[in-house]
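Lab manual, section 2.4: Encoding a predicted structure.

Procedure: take the sequence of the chain (189 residues), apply the prediction step described in section 2.3, and record the output as C-alpha cells. A sample record is shown.
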Amino acid sequence: MLENIVEQIMLLKSMIVIAAVGTIALTVFCLVYCRKFSWTSSNLKLLGFFYGMDMADTFVLAVCMLKLFLVISLLFSKGRIELIHIYFFGVLVIVCNFFNRKLKGVFVNLFNGAIIMGVLFVSNLLLSYLREILFDVKIAIALIFLAVFLILYAAYDVGYCVLSIIERRENREQNSKAKERTNKRQVEE
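Recorded output:
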C-alpha cells in the first residue's frame, strides 16, 4: 500500500520540482519588486493584494499556483500523462471552486480541465511522433502553438483566481461597512 502511494508521488516529481523552483522564483521576484516601499510606486498594488489576505484566500492562490505548475510540468516533461496527473488536476479544480464558493462553476472548470488534459495528451502524442517517426515542421509549429495555448490558459486561470480573491475581499469589505452602518443606526435609535 505504502509502495503504491510512493510510486504515485514519484510520478509527480517533475511537478514538485517545478513548483519548488517556481515558488522560489516568485518569492525572489516579490522581494526584489517590493524591496523599496513608496506610497507612489507601483509595488503598492502588489503589497496591497497580499495585505489582508485571509487563510482561505491564501489557500486558493496556492491551489491555483499548483494547477499552473502542474500544467507547466506536464508540458515540459517528456513523460506521459498518468491517471494521477488527471486526478490531481481534478482535485485541485474542485478544491479551488469549493474555497472560492463557486460550486456552480465546478462542472465548467472540470470540463476545461479535461480539455487541458486532452491537449496535453495530444501534445505528448505529437512530440513522440516528431521524435520517433518523422520530424515535420508543420507539426512542430502546431506543437509550439499548443504549448503557447496551455501556458496562456494556465496564466488566465491564475489571473481569474486573483480576480476572484479581490472580488471576494471587496464583498467582505462592503458587508462589513453595511454592518457598521446598521449598528450605528441601531445605536442612534
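Check your result against the sample. The two ends are 66 Å apart (CA to CA).
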